Amino acid sequence: xxxxxxxxxxxxxxxxxxxxxxxxxxxxxxxxxxxxx
Length: 37
Prior knowledge:
Layout: no helix or strand
């Protein structure tokens, strides 16, 4: 299932980023405020 994930603002004008690693596996349940990246 596709889900939108909001990330903190890094700097003014930065609108994109690249995910280089995940802290959870496919199919894992995640809790509110759990670190994913």
